[in-house]
């Protein structure tokens, strides 16, 4: 998975980069690996909040689907952990949705392939001859 990290208003040190790669890269174990992860972290200020407010936004690009999560916290690491938890839930929903589609298509295909009773293989036991 390709991980792209963008920053706004803060500098990205090596420890923070490793933390982000561990948290977001660990999402691969929940299903198919996404093609790309776009991570945007930064410091924002809000009118009613005092002090530093950090924002983390992550977009995971899957084939045919984009999952997105965003969090704002006073600590950047807490925001990243919250985004990770939110994305875990979204990945589980995405995985279950795809699994349901596959099963639905399999059931439909099975209905189409139903054989007539005369074409079925005889079961073990006595064979009753029709006369």
TrEMBL record:
A GO cellular component annotation in the UniProt record: cytosolic small ribosomal subunit
Record has Transmembrane as a keyword: no
One Pfam family recorded for the sequence: Ribosomal_S30AE
UniProt region (Disordered), positions on chain: 103-131
Keyword set, alphabetical order: Coiled coil, Translation regulation
Gene3D superfamilies referenced in this protein's UniProt entry, alphabetically: Ribosome hibernation promotion factor-like
Keyword Thylakoid: no
Coiled coil regions in record: 66-93
InterPro entries the UniProt entry points to: HPF/YfiA_ribosome-assoc (IPR050574), RHF-like (IPR036567), RHF/RaiA (IPR003489)
GO MF annotation: an example: ribosomal small subunit binding
GO biological process, one term: negative regulation of translational elongation
Protein name from the UniProt record: Ribosomal subunit interface protein
Underlying gene: raiA
């Amino acid at each position: 998975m390709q991980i792209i990290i963008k920053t706004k208003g803060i500098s990205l040190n090596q420890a923070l980069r490793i933390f982000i790669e561990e948290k977001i890269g660990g999402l691969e174990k929940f299903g198919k690996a996404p093609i790309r992860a776009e991570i945007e972290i930064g410091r924002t200020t809000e009118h009613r909040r005092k002090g530093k407010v950090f924002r983390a936004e992550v977009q995971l690009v899957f084939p045919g689907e984009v999952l997105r999560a965003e969090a704002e916290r006073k600590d950047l690491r807490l925001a990243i952990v919250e985004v990770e938890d939110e994305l875990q839930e979204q990945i589980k929903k995405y995985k279950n949705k795809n699994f349901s589609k596959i099963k639905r298509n399999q059931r439909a295909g099975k209905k189409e392939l139903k054989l007539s009773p005369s074409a079925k293989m005889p079961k073990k036991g006595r064979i009753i001859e029709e006369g």
